[in-house]
């Protein structure tokens, strides 16, 4: 018998011992975790399953959809449609919201997800993942009978009640917070169960490792350029230490490294599409990752304010992202504020 606690036991403890999550939310997280196991099976098939390559369609972001983007999206919808805990879902791969068929009373939660993050890495066998965020349905007017609408989703990230990701890498690991720190669960493939392998994850406040797509350097704003130049100057420069650089182009993999050993991740606004605040999506990438990083003692800003305080105006809103080791994020943020 595996002495290590399972996901279920961890969630029951958060429910009963810490009073953090009601049974409905515990069950919703279990459904999402089961869906991630199902996605992992498709991911691991690779060329042996019909999962590689493009689906020949575009999503609302104007991105070419990979077959696995669509498969992962369908797995999450199928798993949650009858879970009974949800009122509606939103996804990177769907333009509008998916209101759960209200044959039964609808659940009180809203689930948002990036079903497959890091799609450009699918065909080259580099780690990818699923990111999810859970909000409570805002129902100030309980007499309201109309179904859930998009405006119910437009809540700032500090309203999240659960957030996490599943990374499909050499190990399949589910990383989760319900507001009581960050826990990591490794998939035991023989038993098909999630085993608690790390609790109270902590990000060191300082780091020597930065993550940014350097090919965009000529497009960056001055504060980002200043920060990265200082890192590149190494111990002879103003930082007095040498830095290392990593960029996996899967936010899930870069964030997993930062949760595991510290670092700073930046996908800032740049001049390529000046009308867009950044590339990454607020509701189902920056908010869940920002809460996880904060719960692990790190920080997450858009260069000027806490990501979790950004009030969304639309479902697929983009945002500039600077997250990770607290002292480094604060330094980059200070450079932005000084430049204003
Ligand atoms: P997605 O595959 O869900 O569209 O997200 C990809 C994102 C993120 O995972 C990653 O950090 C970033 O795009 C990489 O962008 P570049 O390819 O521009 O480096
Ligand atoms: Mn995409
Ligand atoms: Mn993504
Ligand atoms: Mn995606």
TrEMBL record:
What's the source species for this entry?
Tepidicella xavieri
The pathway that the record names for this protein is:
Carbohydrate biosynthesis
User: Which named protein is this?
Assistant: Fructose-1,6-bisphosphatase class 1
> Which residues are involved in binding substrate?
117-120, 213, 279
HAMAP family linked? FBPase_class1
Which positions are annotated as binding Mg(2+) 1? 92, 114, 116
Answer whether the UniProt record assigns the keyword Isomerase to this protein: no
Q: Where is the Fructose-1-6-bisphosphatase class I N-terminal domain?
A: 7-199
Write down the EC number: 3.1.3.11
Q: How is the cofactor bound?
A: Binds 2 magnesium ions per subunit.
Q: Which GO BP terms, alphabetically?
A: fructose 1,6-bisphosphate metabolic process; fructose 6-phosphate metabolic process; fructose metabolic process; gluconeogenesis; sucrose biosynthetic process
This protein's assembly is summarised as:
Homotetramer.
């Amino acid at each position: 018998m595996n002495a290590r606690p399972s996901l279920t036991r961890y969630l029951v403890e958060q429910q009963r011992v810490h009073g953090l999550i009601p049974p409905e939310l515990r069950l919703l997280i279990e459904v999402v975790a089961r869906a991630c196991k199902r996605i992992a099976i498709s991911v691991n098939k690779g060329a042996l399953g019909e999962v590689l390559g493009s689906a020949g369609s575009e999503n609302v972001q104007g991105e070419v959809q990979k077959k696995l983007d669509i498969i992962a999206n369908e797995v999450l919808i199928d798993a949650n449609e009858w879970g009974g805990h949800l009122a509606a879902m939103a996804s990177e791969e769907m333009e509008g919201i998916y209101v759960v068929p209200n044959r039964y009373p609808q659940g009180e939660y809203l689930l948002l997800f990036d079903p497959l993050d890091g799609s450009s890495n699918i065909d080259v066998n580099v780690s990818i993942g699923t990111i999810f965020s859970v909000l409570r349905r805002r129902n100030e007017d309980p007499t309201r009978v109309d179904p859930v609408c998009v405006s119910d989703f437009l809540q700032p990230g500090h309203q999240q009640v659960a957030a996490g990701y599943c990374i499909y890498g050499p190990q399949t690991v589910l990383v989760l917070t319900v507001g009581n720190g960050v826990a990591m669960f490794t998939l035991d493939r023989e038993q098909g169960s999630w085993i608690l392998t790390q609790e109270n994850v902590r990000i060191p406040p300082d780091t020597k490792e930065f993550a940014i797509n350097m090919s965009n350097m000529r497009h960056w704003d001055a504060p980002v350029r200043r920060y990265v130049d200082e890192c590149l100057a190494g111990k002879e420069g103003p930082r007095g230490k040498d830095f290392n650089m990593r960029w996996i182009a899967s936010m899930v993999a870069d964030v997993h490294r930062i949760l595991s050993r510290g670092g700073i991740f930046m996908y800032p606004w740049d001049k390529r599409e000046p009308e867009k605040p950044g590339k990454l999506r607020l509701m189902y990438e920056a908010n869940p990752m920002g809460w996880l990083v904060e719960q692990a003692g790190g920080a997450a800003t858009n260069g000027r304010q806490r990501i979790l305080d950004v009030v969304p105006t639309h479902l697929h809103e983009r945002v500039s992202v600077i997250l990770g080791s607290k002292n480094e994020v604060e330094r980059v943020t200070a450079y932005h504020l000084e430049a204003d």
